[in-house]
Design a protein that fits this description.
By secondary structure, this protein is of the alpha/beta class. It is built from 14 helices and twelve strands.
Amino acid sequence: MLKAGIVGLPNVGKSTLFNALSNNETAEAANYPFCTIEPNTAMVIVPDSRLKELQQIVNGQRTVPAVIEFVDIAGLVKGASQGEGLGNKFLTNIKETDLIVHVVRCFDDPNVIHVSGKIDPIDDINLINTELAISDLDIVERGRERIAKRLRSGDKEAIEVDAVFEKILAFLQEGQPAKAANLNEEEKFAIKSYGLITLKDVIYAANVAEIDIAKDSNPYVDKVREFAEKEGCGLVMICANAEAQLIGLEDEEKDEFLKELGVKEMGLKKLIRETYRLLGLQTYFTAGEKEVRAWTINIGDKAPRAASKIHTDFERGFIKAEVIAYNDFVQCKGRVSARSSGKARDEGKEYVVQDGDVIEFKFNV
């Protein structure tokens, strides 16, 4: 299961956002630093209206959506890379995630304490990014020490690793992320076991006040957007407090609340979709009377790999896949009509699965 870690300075709204994501109030949210100590986790549904459409067509008994695991991680402070605050614990927890959701405070409120005593989202971002870069710098320097002997003996793997370390070292020394070195896939793979944090993709979640929800931005968000564009990161504007107010509400009550705020969709759904996109994920479906399910795969996965998500035997004994594009499945009102209309096709092991494909696998073990 892929994980997205929610990080940020203390009191920026991380735990409030987590509660909204998980649709409950399990993560304590309070107006003091280090409210979150142990990371909270939640399986969060990826919004996808296609599931309901497929269920209605096949008269499925239930639907099973795609999910992403979100982890609410303790707030980080200056000096975390040297163990300040909950630094060591924070860095350990964040290494275990696949993507970082960096919550940035973009609202004024004298009643909510800011650890730096002022609201400056770029300073906040730079503080955390610097601490993460320092942590990665330490990993790289210690890594080079460990492979030094192998390097002198001409070990091929050590030479490859050291070359990548050399490439990212200058960036880390300047407090920049390792991903600024624009490593290719082979280079990333060479140092994958070292778990560098600053190689992870980042989404900046600009946390705004309720009065700004219906707007496209505010002066703080403008700064974060500019920063994110330069870094090549994602950005989503959210209001954690407003999102948390939706917890436990019925659909009609939620619709009324959104109407009052002047928005059609809250930022939370956008954040989940952006997380899914940045992780390089897509969805295919299986649709039968017992169950309609969304399966999460990597973009570019071939049919046997996609089949393995159901069961490893499906990949091992893969014969073929009957594939119907989602739009064709809906237009034909199901598999039978799609077959008779020539919209269903048999694909082999080299077929690259497309987002929305409705698939039935044939296998033999």
